[in-house]
Model the fold of this input.
Amino acid sequence: MEALLKSMHNTSPKANSHEMWWGTLGTVRPFPNFNSEKDAREIQTALESKASDVNTLVRILTNRNNAQRQSIAESYHNLTQKELCPALKKALSGGLEQLMLGLMMTPSQFDAHRLRQSMDGIGTDEESLLAVLCTKSPQQLKDATIAYKQEFGRYLENDLISETSKDFTKLVLAILKKEELNSKEMVDYQLIDQDVKALNDAVNGKKKDPAPWIQVLTTRDSNHLNRVLSRLEDLRGETVDKTVQSHFSGDLRLGFRTLVGSIPSIPLFLAQRLHSNIKKGSLVQGIIISHSEEDLLCVRIEYRKLTNISLYSALQKEYKGEMQQALLALCRSEDL
Done:
């Protein structure tokens, strides 16, 4: 499986977006011989049947990539003069409704909704908020920020400020606006030494200073940070996670732990999160939808290594009916 992924990673995508794209580490790829009008007619028939043909809805929408789903929504509107999402909402319920509506959002809209969901209601779900922020690229976070304003008529930055406090606010805003300022062309050993010293000095004094940790962890690329954190562990004789737990507290500690946990490998971080929360349908859906066209194959491999069972098998065991059908279609296949 890993050899296959390496060969896929080195394959260039074909120019025609409707052809199968093997240069991706996602599990959902463009459906071959795609016809949005045909799919829209099938969906219309499924929605208009007496009990709604949920199986057809799931089969079509989980086997098309996001761009194709947007085309289907447009064709459905041209065909019926109605919007597809309200029709799906009427026909479905519960977790399956949530999953199918999530599939119909663009990636940036979906990220925006996950961020809003983590802050909505009584109290903020800091763990879910951080899990989204720490697993997205700077460009994806910029796109989500724009989508957030379009979807909710609110500014993401303002909501983060109102829902968090003190140094934790500084951290989440720094993650949201993260810029990788170090040079990626070469290994900057001088900057590595400088960053290791800054992180170490910040936790050695009587008063712990989170500012250098925020600055270093949100302005460097992952390759540089892996070297920095490895050197810091050698220097201190303990894991970075233990250093964070010993010297910081509250939401700030959670934020730093999430960041340093996701830096070495985002797929491993997500696999751990799935394993710990496999019964939480909303969380599982969030990860699988968000990463289905990006790196879910890598997440599957890490899940298999971590648990000794495949993600496909875990989903098959935990979920039933159309929800199982949908999640398995997005997960795509078994890892032996």
